[in-house]
Write a structure and sequence with these properties.
Blueprint lengths: L2 H4 L1 H5 L4 E5 L1 H13 L5 E4 L6 H10 L5 H10 L6 H6 L12 H11 L4 H11 L5 E4 L6 E6 L2 E4 L1 H5 L6 E5 L7 H9 L2 E4 L4 H9 L2 H10 L2 E5 L14 H9 L7 E4 L15 E4 L12 H12 L1
Parallel strand pairs: 1-2, 1-7, 2-3, 7-8, 8-9, 9-10
Antiparallel strand pairs: 4-5, 4-6
Helix pairs in contact: 3-5, 3-14, 4-7, 7-8, 10-12
């Protein structure tokens, strides 16, 4: 599948934005970008192994659908019921805990479409204001290193504090050509917000993604978390998150942050541009879509 065929609005735009991450954080960024008129491409982690996604991943041997579903929901036409339909979660029988969107994506992948084709089709059905792509057509497993122990799987890594390092298995997974094409064409690449290892690292830890981002020459914006995260990022400051990102060979051009509830840490503001904006509403841990949209519009246009 060629990018110009499945995302002509992205190709034709003077501001071509790729958003990298997974889960709730990436969904917030995508929703904010769409709110101010952009047609973003989301490149989504496929490392989840918990909950409904984990059950479907194990049963069908496919990429976990949950983060992809959440991101498509964030971009679905707000005048339709599609976002509510995709997020509907069953509470009874053997379907208990499954989100309907997860089942739809699993069905699409089970009838012979590739994960990329399944994402494109569901984006089309929901009239999504953007394109969601899996970072790989195959599921990825996270391996956390804690001293001489190994912590296997996203769910376990997410709940473990003080990890020495987190690796991917396979270490150099295949990345769909259309993902590389979208990154190569990008004028801006956003990273986060999200869990540093289990969402962000699960994408930027892939060598092919690293090389594509560096080669693109796009401006890289890191959207910082609003508060420390229990488990994998316990007590980490914004500076600590940036240090982790730099380990993957990424040079961040701009940091968008709200340090109301998180420490900045020891930062060198001469190395990149730092932009403060109020990004949290009543729920201090979650980015407010309207506030994030205003802040991104001021930065990107």
């Amino acid at each position: 599948m060629r990018l110009e065929e499945i995302a002509p609005s992205y190709v034709a735009s003077p501001q071509r934005i790729v958003a990298i991450g997974g889960g709730h954080g990436l969904a917030a960024t995508l929703a904010a970008l769409a709110r101010v008129g952009h047609f973003p491409v989301g490149v989504v982690s496929v490392a989840d192994d918990g909950g409904s996604s984990g059950r479907l991943r194990e049963a069908f041997g496919q990429i976990p659908p949950g983060d992809i579903r959440r991101c498509i929901s964030a971009l679905a036409d707000p005048s339709s019921s599609w976002a509510s339909i995709l997020e509907y979660r069953f509470s009874q029988t053997e379907l208990r805990g499954h989100a309907l969107g997860n089942l739809i994506l699993t069905a699409l992948m089970s009838i012979g479409t590739t994960p990329v084709e399944a994402c494109v089709e569901l984006s089309r059905l929901t009239f999504a204001n953007g394109l969601i792509l899996p970072v790989s057509n195959d599921p990825i497993t996270l391996i956390g290193h804690y001293g001489e122990m190994q912590i296997v799987g996203q769910a376990m890594v997410a709940s473990t504090a003080g990890l020495d390092a987190v690796a991917l298995m396979p270490s150099d997974p295949e990345v769909p050509d259309v993902v590389i094409e979208a990154i190569a064409a990008a004028t801006t690449i956003t990273i986060g917000p999200g869990s540093i290892h289990t969402s962000i690292g699960a994408v930027i830890g892939i060598p092919k993604v690293q090389r594509a981002v560096v080669a693109s020459g796009a401006r890289v914006i890191y959207i910082a978390n609003l508060s420390p995260q229990a488990g994998e990022a316990q007590d980490m400051s914004v500076a600590d998150h940036l240090a982790e990102i730099s380990r993957f060979g990424f040079s961040v051009d701009q940091v968008l942050y709200d340090d109301t509830s998180i420490e900045l840490g020891e930062v060198d503001k001469s190395k990149c541009e730092w932009t403060f904006a109020r990004l949290s509403g009543d729920e201090k841990r979650v980015h407010d879509i309207a506030l994030l949209a205003d802040a991104l519009h001021a930065i990107i246009g």
